[in-house]
Amino acid sequence: MGWLTWQPLPRVHLSFGLEGLLVGLGVGVAEELLFRGWLIDELRWNCNFKMAMWISSTIYAALHFIKPWTEIVRTLPSFPGLLLLGLTLGWARQVHQKRLGFAIGLHAGLVWGYYLVDVSDWINYTNQVPEWVTGINQNPLAGIVGFGFLCALAFVVRKIGEFGVTLD
């Protein structure tokens, strides 16, 4: 389609991989313990799981916008993607009887993949399509393609839970 071009990986790609893995694991563990672990369980004291998950996911998405006003406005198109990501990770928590392993692994893997592509400049956008297609400010969560991928991921995670498929 020509929307982006893949670049050769730099020679230090192994260090990018290890660094990205550590970042992914750190973010995955910290955010899942906080938002899909502690916060959902606290909210469950006052509401059902579905409401607790929506509240937790909204807070999760909103806290990604603690930054100067101009940055909030610039990155605001990623809010729906962050909200859907929070919901998807909440559903991932439910797949394993409220244990966080799958959610942590999924979150860490997504952060790791994004880190590898972004930090290593592995792709260049060709600007042949509008930014809202591939991701405003090169953020895939702020574009139709990335949001579509996230919708597909959410669908798969929900179906795993609905059919009682265990990933153990």
From TrEMBL:
Aminoacyl-tRNA synthetase in keyword set: no
All residue ranges annotated as the CAAX prenyl protease 2/Lysostaphin resistance protein A-like domain in the record: 18-110
Keyword field: Membrane, Transmembrane, Transmembrane helix
Domain of life: Bacteria
GO BP terms in the entry: CAAX-box protein maturation
GO molecular function: endopeptidase activity
Alphabetized InterPro entries for the sequence: Rce1/LyrA-like_dom
Pfam family, one: Rce1-like
TM helices/strands, residue ranges: 12-35, 47-66, 72-92, 99-117, 137-157
PANTHER family linked: CAAX AMINO TERMINAL PROTEASE (PTHR43592), CAAX AMINO TERMINAL PROTEASE FAMILY PROTEIN (PTHR43592:SF15)
Name the record gives this protein: CAAX prenyl protease 2/Lysostaphin resistance protein A-like domain-containing protein
Organism of this sequence: Chroococcidiopsis cubana SAG 39.79
